[in-house]
Amino acid sequence: MTYAVAIAGLVFLILIHEAGHFFVARLVNMRPRKFYIFFPPTIWKTTRGGIEYGIGAIPLGGYVKIPGMHRPAGKDLEMHLHRAVEEQPELEPQVAAAAHTLEGDDLVAAREAVAGLHTAVEHAELSERAQIGAHKGLTDVDDGLADDAYWRSSIPKRVAVIAAGPLTNLLFAVALLTVVFMLGVSDGATRGVESVSAGTPAAGMGLLAGDEVVQVNGKPVTGDSLSDAIQAGKGAPVTLVVARNGETVTLPATRPEKIGDRYILGFTRVARFKTYGPLEATGQAIGETWRVTALTGAALGHIVSGGNRDEVSSPVGIVQGSSEALQYDYRYFLGILALISLSLALLNMLPFLPLDGGHIAFTLIEGIRGRAVPRIAYERASVIGIALVLMLFFLGVSNDVNRIGGG
């Protein structure tokens, strides 16, 4: 059940990210053509109001298809209609003529040429595969020539549409963190035992959930000093005195287990929570957002230089971590969900295509140039960006597999 809630939380973050793009695009009169959660192949879709809504099979994100992200070029038609031309060579002159008009500045003539090509393709006897390719190419070019095409809009509108996704995740992160600070954040731990893990030294010595640890190795402890008292023995057997049902019980000496550089008995403690009022909680949330943003920037720098690569996680690790947090306390889960939302915002603002930051960077470049960046430049930049994203993804999957498998 906790895994289902964790997955639902991740899907929700993707949904609001894409919704940011979607609604701002509609606000500035760029009617989206598609709204998808996850990537193709499609497992479900429906069309309403001329917009296709769907769910893909690959859970690596989502997308909103905004018309005409790039100025259409003649090679777009030639690429998608090459099979149709092979099957019906009489289409070649019309395809060449339409492709030629796309290279000019007369968009009216280009629309007329593409409309004529639509008619010719509809009347041609083509295989299903050729029809699908031709239809996709012509539809994409139609979108690129439309009045609401992205590349034809002003620079501020284009930046607003692309930035809306990450900003939605950022605002959601701040809002959710505000709620978390109002509900209460951990302010240390008490001496009370929340749970005892099976098969651990704590279970072997007879420690029970509900106990309160009052002494470690004969010395009184507080919630703040309990952990240090266990570490002070450096692996030597530990004796606990606990308060249980109004009585004092001495538990037998047991050697703690070493995990990493710490000595662990295997129990969790009841946490203390500190709550804040609405205004103070908002301030705390903004401060935490800024702190995590700075740490994320530093971590990305370390990844590039070869360090901190074992800290990268994939959706598998994100779901597992969220599920574990939910099992412990719902407030921890909400806090992690907020930080994941912030991470999505920051990752998408990296200036690499096909990430949102890459689109913003190229849009600004076009504004400075005063003309569109050639399609080939977008494609080459996208290859580099996709390679970087895939590298991070597979690095994250590898780390998650090692963590889950104990490697």
How is the secondary structure organized here?
Elements lengths: L1 H26 L6 E15 L2 E15 L8 H7 L1 H6 L4 H11 L4 H17 L4 H18 L9 H29 L1 E12 L4 H4 L7 E5 L2 E2 L5 H7 L5 E7 L2 E8 L2 E3 L2 E3 L2 E8 L3 H28 L9 H14 L1 H19 L7 H14 L5 H31 L2
Antiparallel strand pairs: 1-2, 3-10, 4-5, 4-6, 6-7, 8-9
Helix pairs in contact: 1-7, 1-11, 1-12, 2-4, 2-6, 4-5, 5-6, 7-10, 7-12, 7-13, 10-12, 11-12
How would you sum up this structure, described in words?
The structure is a single chain. The chain has 407 residues and is of the alpha+beta class. Among the domains are: 74-145, no CATH class; 186-274, PDZ domain (Pdz3 Domain, Roll), CATH 2.30.42.10. It is 57% helix and 19% strand. The protein contains 14 helices and 10 strands. It has helices spanning 2-27, 74-80, 82-87, 92-102, 107-123, 128-145, 155-183, 201-204, 226-232, 278-305, 315-328, 330-348, 356-369, 375-405, and strands at residues 34-48, 51-65, 185-196, 212-216, 219-220, 238-244, 247-254, 257-259, 262-264, 267-274. It has a 4-stranded antiparallel sheet. A two-stranded antiparallel sheet has the order 1-2. Strands 3-10 form a two-stranded antiparallel ribbon. A hairpin with a 2-residue loop joins strand 6 and strand 7 (247-254). Helix 7 (155-183) runs antiparallel to helix 13 (356-369). The longest helix has 31 residues, at 375-405. The radius of gyration is 29 Å and the shape is elongated. The chain starts with a helix and ends with a helix. The model is unreliable at 311-326 and 399-407 (pLDDT under 50).
